[in-house]
């Protein structure tokens, strides 16, 4: 069944990633993507709730430049297209986090991965889960 196949693929990928990590090998596309999303979501989680005009503009510039130099060329191209359709929302920390969550979910849809509930970005990327499992 499809779910079991996905589980096996995930397990194989995790083992391969663990081996590469032990050998200090370069990141593969999936590892790079995961690390990048972690960085971007964490950065958004710590963006000011009331950014100055400069901070807001700087964040927009960051995503523009980031989309030009990201090491996965197809990923970078997809991001540039997405930025044309949905530019970064940088009026507050919450707006940026929600915007990034929507962008990430667009990528997840494309890749057949689960959609993340954007109401949970604060718990996932800044405060930790309410059940205390991150304490």
Automatic annotation (TrEMBL):
Pfam families: Evr1_Alr (PF04777). Keywords: Disulfide bond, FAD, Flavoprotein, Mitochondrion, Oxidoreductase. It is found in: Mitochondrion intermembrane space. One of its GO terms (cellular component) is mitochondrial intermembrane space. GO terms for molecular function: flavin adenine dinucleotide binding; flavin-dependent sulfhydryl oxidase activity. Gene3D superfamilies: ERV/ALR sulfhydryl oxidase domain. Residues 25-125 form the ERV/ALR sulfhydryl oxidase domain. Its EC number is 1.8.3.2. Its cofactor is FAD. It is an enzyme of class 1 (oxidoreductase). It catalyses: 2 R'C(R)SH + O2 = R'C(R)S-S(R)CR' + H2O2. PANTHER family: ALR/ERV, FAD-LINKED SULFHYDRYL OXIDASE ALR. This is Sulfhydryl oxidase.
């Amino acid at each position: 069944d499809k779910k079991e196949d996905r589980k096996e693929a995930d397990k194989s990928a995790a083992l391969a990633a663990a081996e590469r990590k032990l050998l200090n090998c370069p990141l593969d596309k999936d590892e790079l993507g995961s690390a990048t999303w972690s960085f971007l979501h964490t950065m958004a989680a710590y963006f000011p709730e009331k950014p100055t005009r400069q901070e807001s503009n700087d964040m927009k510039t960051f995503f523009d430049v980031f989309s030009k130099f990201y090491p996965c060329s197809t990923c970078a191209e997809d991001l540039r297209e997405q930025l044309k359709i949905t530019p970064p929302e940088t009026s507050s920390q919450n707006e940026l986090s929600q915007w990034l969550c929507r962008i990430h979910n667009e990528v997840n849809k494309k890749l057949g991965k689960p959609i993340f509930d954007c109401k949970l970005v604060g718990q996932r990327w800044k405060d930790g889960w309410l059940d205390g499992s991150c304490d």
